[in-house]
Amino acid sequence: MNGVFYGIAIALLALVAFTAVRTQLALFRARSTTAAAARDPLDLYEAAYLAGGPRRVVNTALVSLVSQGGVRVSSEGVVTPVQGFRPRKRTPVERAVHKHVKSAPGGRTTAQVRHSTVDDHTMRRLTTPLWRHGFLMSPADRARARRRTSRLIVFAALAAIMAAVSPFLGGPLGAIMIAAAAVVVGVACFLWLRRAMADPVTKAGRAALARVDVRDLADGSWSSPDDVKLVALHGLTKLPDRQLADTLRRDTRVTTGRSAACCAPGHCGSYGSSYVPVYDGGSYGGGSSEGGFFGGLFDFGGSHGGGYDGGGGGYLSLILT
Fold this sequence. Notes:
Blueprint: H1 2-31, H2 44-68, E1 71-73, E2 78-81, H3 92-102, E3 108-109, H4 110-118, H5 121-132, H6 139-165, H7 173-196, H8 203-210, H9 226-234, H10 242-250, E4 253-256, E5 259-262, E6 278-279, E7 282-283, H11 314-320
Antiparallel strand pairs: 1-2, 2-3, 4-5, 6-7
């Protein structure tokens, strides 16, 4: 009987270790992607996305619109449109931000503007060329990694159940300790890997971003003011207008009904729901806010349709996928 307890405990610990190591290796390979083909240099908002995710993109657009006189931002963080202003057609992100500002009488808070713009199809059009050229991890790789890391919670939960019931069934102390170790390792690896997956930028993406230098953009490829370029590459900390920077940073919550959704860095500020190219039969999420689990049995907030490798194959194939 003791052998059964030991076998189950060791098997759960082995599954945790196998899943964690395989996921980490897959992430390493995905981040080592080289550029798929030669392409034009990054534009302003592509660089902003690679440098800081969708929050950086929206902040860049807001600063640009303020500099053009298209919107005003109050000290309370309310963004209102300027009558008669029309954003440039060649900057779809700015057009999307301006559209969402105008859509609400009396303006919107900066947090509301971020949330509505992150979910806009314009953000999806911005990110699709980036992952297709290898600057971001592919949606399939990220969805697969999320499914694998989510299984760590299942294995940890099974190990916790075993550790809890074993004393009542006469299980040996050694098996209980091994099961407890599987719980700790499983939860720790889950948190560590989810944090590692929060940044989808690949080696090629970082190299492309490193080639961008505000001082060398005298060729007119970026026609925006230097302040806007600094925000795109380095964030609000580099914005000379400290009052505007503090206002955009301070307004971090948007109230919807009885609840308040956070728009602080790491939420709509990370590589979130905007990184969701849609395919026939499913879509894939990005950033820390999505990730399917066993085809949606337990969904921690993200990918739908099960991913490229979703579908049949049974429980064992799900574990080893």
